[in-house]
Amino acid sequence: MKSAFKSLILKSSLTLECMALCMSMIALNALAAPNALAAPSSLSSLPPSTIKFGDLYKMPVGPEGLEPSEKLLNLANQRVSMLGYVVTQTPIVPGRIILSPLPITMDDEDERLADDLPATAVFVHFDPTHEAITQLLDHPIGTLLKVQGILSVGLQEEADGRVSTIRLTIE
Amino acid sequence: MSRFLVSLSLLANLFLLASNAYSDPLISRVTPPSKPYHQGQNEPVTARFLTDQRFDLQTTVQPDAGTTITQVRFVIDGKELVKISAQNSNTANTSFVTTGLVEGLKPNSAVVSFRGYSNKQEGIHHLVVEATQSDLKVTADEWHVFEIVGLQRLGSKAKNVIIFLGDGMGATHRTAARIVAKSYEQGKANGRLAMDTFPVSGLVMTASLNSIVTDSSPGMSNYVTGNKANNNEEGVFPDDTKDAFDNPRVEYLSEYLHRIKGTSLGLVTTADVFDATPAANAVHTSDRGKGSGIVDQYLDDQNLTGLRVLMGGGRKWFLPNASGKIEKNQPVINGSQRTASSDYVLPDDLVTGWGAAKGAKDPERNLIADFRSAGWQYAPNYSVLKDAISTKNPPHQLLGLFTFSNMNVAFDKINGRRCASEASASAFANGCAAGTGKGPFGEGIETPLSSSSPRGSVVHDFGFPDQPMLDEMTDAALKVLDHDNDKGFILMVEGASIDKQSHLMDTDRWILEVLEFDRAVAMGQRYAQAHPDTLVIVTADHECSGASLIGSLKVNRDTVAKNLASDPGKAAVLRDKQVGVYEGAGFPRYRILADGYPADTDIQGKVLIGYGANADRYETWLSNPRPTSDSQQPFIGVEPLNTYPAHPAARNAENGLFIAGQVPGDNAVHTGTDVPLGAMGRGATLFTGFFDNTDVFFKIGQAMLGGVRE
Ligand SMILES: [Zn+2]
């Protein structure tokens, strides 16, 4: 099944074995293989844990806000892999995409932050000069994407003034 | 106007231009804005206020090179109001600001303000601004005017006013909802929406201060200040400073009526509570996006607005963002969206001039806790809301924050309720079971991307399965406001996602938003029938998407699905064989369930909508989400599936009918078309005919302060 997709391998150093096993860091339909990202860190030799949006927090959301799951806290600062939809956001924030459990279009022109972004959305940071990921931003919206990176938790203000709770940093 | 007069005024204009060009310093802005008597016009374009309504006077002055501005005088009707000098600036309710100004002004420019001005004398008033620079050159701008609108003392006054604001709701939105909910027979509607039954109707012009096409900030604030605001700005006039919270203010209806007669205010929305429409009733800012400052001011200035009810989404703004703080060895992870950059601190002259709270950049503030300690009851979901109002003594102040951002739309909330109810689940075979791809509104509501949350509905995916409908929120708001109501109230109820779903051109979702909104209108109507001293208005801030009712679907859902598969993207089939126009449209007939919403939106004969303000899109005529065994997507077969519809342009791209956009971007846009307004109750007769959105303010003022002949 997986071989049916044109996978985008962002790391030249990944072995074929790992490709088959962990499906690379980013797989995306119909993009040509790009140049390699930065050299892998020591963490990247470990197989990543997979976490789903429904596993991040206690659901439903509590009256005083989100509460992290044990699983999320245990995976903090680890390499993890997540599947989600790339949020359509105008204007684009260089080096940043938002991954959502549902396809979402954010109309910053008329809504600002009064949007439909689920509270569980995860902010993905990457090297803005990386062409392959940057191409994503011009890709048809609703792209389903698998991302692998280092998971970090805690509130942090982003370049566009939004506050992220969970981030994935692509090594 | 005679040719002689035209040339005279042309001459006057030329003289004005010339005198401006050669006189220094340059007075580049005078607030309140006005356009003096000029060519082709008998009446000045002017700011208008009710008697004693407060507003700020402000001017921007740009000196010659090498000089500074030393003094500004505001003169009203030939009498000096105030003389503000650079030396003893920033005292009491005046300020002389030379830093933090926008780009493009000359060096040493100054923005000079007099805060909280008001005038009790009816009629046109002349405002002269005179500026002196350090080389003693003086300029006077003598051409500005403002008007104080007098009220007629007539008879019975309205005690309460309820404003139902269908965001983006044009005539088409109302017609489509009526056809879906009530059906037609032999050309006659079998019934009316609640909003159709209002006895008085008007048509409203919706432009903002700087565009024929408004956004929701001026769209709302023009109704409740009597003045035009720029797009993205609410309760303020534009200025030349960067600070989003220091703009010259104009007093809201809520503040004005609270100040002179102690009225209460209720704000109810299906959007995030910081969104433009609710905020444009209570908060003054030139940037509708400054969430932390906006929600803080709801509480901090409740003594100015009389705010007693605040309900909608937006919990993320109320949670403390103690960034970097570690609790129990873990970083704080609550989803707060509060930041210092979106928060507010007011300059002292505004604090003094308006009696407003100073504010603070405090992202760490726990605003829910602060609301509670100020005496508010907090409802995080519908169950708590129901309990709160089911007593004989409902809370005096009620805060409802039912989601993190916007609330989910009626389509998804109703789907969630039907999924939770056994009867409905059995009525729709497999309707909500995991992984079946079948939902109550047709095929295709798939499971969430989750291994732990209950499956079957979008509200579960968002983590807020127990959200109230807008009519339930309206009922709660009326119960709170009606209790202890000796001074009257203003209640604004917004159907926010009529607009948001129209932007996405999601026809079935916005139709259900209008139905939900109309059920809320019916609540207000019932209240006004029991309390005849209440005025109820139902209208929109602007139209969205250029929606038009083009006909109905000639075939059934299965045929559409077959055609999409056999002739993807082909107009000859998807358009020509499916779109019924004229008598081919007939009369759609939806089955309405006991919950008030259609059993299925994808019926044969369903209402079809065209969009005149559309972005590129692919149309299938079926509701979204659709069946999603979509082989075009990556990761098919890998859990979780790609089960939800994507963005409109990408949505259905593989088989839908391509319709080229007439506007840039991804979403349909607002249009400048006029919107209908309906009125009932005391003072309703004032709202007949054709008028400007700012006129609504003065009509409400007449009804509540001047009264009407019954
Ligand atoms: Zn809009």
Which keywords apply here?
heterodimer, A: 171 residues, alpha/beta, OB fold (Dihydrolipoamide Acetyltransferase, E2P), 5-stranded mixed barrel, 4 helices, 27% strand, globular, disordered N terminus, B: 710 residues, alpha+beta, Immunoglobulin-like, Alkaline Phosphatase, subunit A, 10-stranded mixed sheet, 6-stranded mixed sheet, 26% helix, 24% strand, binds zinc ion
Give your account of this protein's structure.
The complex is a heterodimer of chains A (171) and B (710). In chain A, the strands form two sheets. Chain A has a five-stranded mixed β-barrel. In chain A, strands 3-5 form a two-stranded parallel sheet. Chain A has a single domain (2-169), classed as OB fold (Dihydrolipoamide Acetyltransferase, E2P). Chain A is an alpha/beta fold and 171 residues long. Chain A has four helices and eight strands; from the N terminus they run H-E-H-E-E-E-E-H-E-H-E-E. The longest helix of chain A is centred in the N-terminal third of the chain and has 7 residues, at 16-22. Residues 1-44 of chain A have low confidence and may be disordered. By secondary structure, chain B is α+β, with helices and mostly antiparallel strands. Chain B has two domains: 21-149, Immunoglobulins (Immunoglobulin-like, Sandwich), CATH 2.60.40; 160-545 and 671-706, Alkaline Phosphatase, subunit A (3-Layer(aba) Sandwich), CATH 3.40.720. In chain B, strands 21-22-16-15-25-11-26-34-14-35 form a ten-stranded mixed beta sheet, with helices on both faces. A six-stranded mixed beta sheet of chain B has the order 2-3-10-9-5-6, with no helix packed on it. Chain B has a four-stranded antiparallel beta sheet with strand order 1-4-8-7. In chain B, strand 12 (184-185) and strand 13 form a beta hairpin. The chains are: A alpha/beta (171), B alpha+beta (710). Zinc ion is lined by residues 168, 216, 499, 503, 544, 670 of chain B.
